[in-house]
Amino acid sequence: MKINKLLTVTQPKPICELDKDQLKELQLTLTWFGYPIGDIDGLIGPKTRNAWAEFKTDVYEGNPELIGPKSIAVLIEKLEKINNVDDYKFDTEEDVIESIKFECKAQDIGSPEQIAYVLATVKWETAHTFKPVKEAFWLSEEWRKMHLKYYPYYGRGYVQLTWVTNYKKYTQIMGVDLVNDPDLALNPKNALFILVHGFKTGAFTGKKITDFINSYVTDFYNARRCINGLDGADNIKKIAENFLKNL
Hints:
By secondary structure, the chain is mainly α. It has helices spanning about 20-30, 45-60, 70-80, 95-105, 110-125, 140-145, 165-175, 190-200, 235-245; strands spanning about 15, 65, 135, 155.
């Protein structure tokens, strides 16, 4: 993702004075960083105002109503950290593990405990292969078509992205047409972003990884609620504990 429209802002100005294209770009950027925007519609509303104010509080001090070249430069700097996905490798399990570590840090969920849990989740969700998989990968496409009510938007990736609403959401965020070609969610680069962004923002279940793993608590058991209730929670907890020993 690149910022183009916002680069035309040469002086600090209230965000309400941005044009529709500039606001869409700002909303999309903030969504990449995990701030809750709602619809990316180019309209100024309380969610956009609050997300920008949170960004200014978290990352760049200043008037939360204003946007200018300096704060835009910070946006670009943070985007560059996430956009280095082309440098990641996915050829071996070790490559994938290293790529997950870097992406977690780029998206600011980079504590050893958080990374250990993300790695454990991928190991479990991919049947220990560290390769993006389809839901019920051991069965046929015909079986999925007959038995999954959200077909063709069944689970794909390092974690299972499901339902057309989520495919639409990440199509908009990533600029990759997952709606017309859902199998693009199996591309390791796309799957990696969705994995980490979903954990950061609570996109999968409404629960964020920071709800369970933060500077005050490390709850590897209940962190499973970020993905799928408590299914496999104890097994994933043990895997995360083993990863943590080596981080």
